[in-house]
Amino acid sequence: MNSKLERILRLVQENPVEFTRFSGDLQQINPESRVVSISNILERVKLPEHSTILDIGTGYGYGAVLLSALGYNVMGVELNRDKLEEGMDYWKRLGIDFEQTEDLSLATSSSGKLYFSARDSKNLGDIPNQSIDMVTAFYISGYMTGEKGAFREVGRILDEHGNFTMTTEGPIQLPQFLRGLAVNLASRFLGPSDLRLTSRFTINDSQVYDKFVLVYDKA
Ligand SMILES: C[S@@+](CC[C@H](N)C(=O)[O-])C[C@H]1O[C@@H](n2cnc3c(N)ncnc32)[C@H](O)[C@@H]1O
């Protein structure tokens, strides 16, 4: 594990937090399991060094912060401004470097930086065409797989070799054995229409909660 990532995991252990206002799901804010999940994905999805990643629905920013520690240029967008602000306050307290911005147009050409922007992912007009190597949507509930328009800009901003990767635990109210099936069906019928589902896999690690992974390429 790289030293920046180790430092973040240490800081998070020393400064535990319970973001219970917007989610009672403590798995979501369990950085050790999130690192396992993200590492698994990056082993499968070969991403060139210094790539630019957009994290949709970044929540408190866990995925974005961990990806940034791996050296990528990362932007996290989140619809719920209060949730994002709680997350940013936390990262600031831990000394994690990031910039909050309303304008992501320059973020794509910077290197190794982390940006957060409070907005709906339907509004990505400031991000140039084909300027993003990977779009992530981590740990989203099954409902977002089919949220109308949430991913409609993804095809435009992705580089031709880019990918869009979603992880989901599936609709939360379903028993565990039905979640994989629900995610499979959702990915087949509800995925982003201008992208092609190229890979679907499960992370077989009991530590990982968001274990269903869907990878889309440009059609
Ligand atoms: C379950 S949380 C996942 C948080 C985060 N991705 C993580 O890995 O910790 C899903 C997030 O997606 C956000 N969201 C839902 N629809 C959105 C949209 N259209 N644009 C941006 N964020 C959205 C929600 O507000 C919520 O914070």
Protein described:
It is a single chain. Strand 1, helix 3 (62-69) and strand 2 form a beta-alpha-beta unit. By secondary structure, the protein is an alpha/beta fold. It has an 8-stranded mixed sheet with strand order 3-4-2-1-5-6-8-7, sandwiched between helices. It is 32% helix and 24% strand. The mean pLDDT is 87. It has one domain: Rossmann fold (3-Layer(aba) Sandwich). Helix 2 (31-44) packs across helix 3 (62-69). It contains 7 helices and 8 strands. Bound molecules: S-adenosylmethionine. The site of S-adenosylmethionine has 22 residues, from helix 3, strand 2 and strand 5.
Distance between the termini: 34 Å
Largest sheet: 8 strands, mixed
Whole-number tally of structural domains:
1
Ligand catalogue: S-adenosylmethionine
CATH superfamily: Vaccinia Virus protein VP39
Helix percent band: 25-40%
Shape: globular
| Number of DSSP strand runs | 8
Mean pLDDT: 87
Any idea what the CATH architecture is? 3-Layer(aba) Sandwich
Order of helices and strands: HHEHEHEEEHHEHEE
Number of helices: 7
Quick description:
The protein is of the alpha/beta class and 219 residues long.
What brief labels describe this structure?
219 residues, alpha/beta, Rossmann fold, 32% helix, binds S-adenosylmethionine
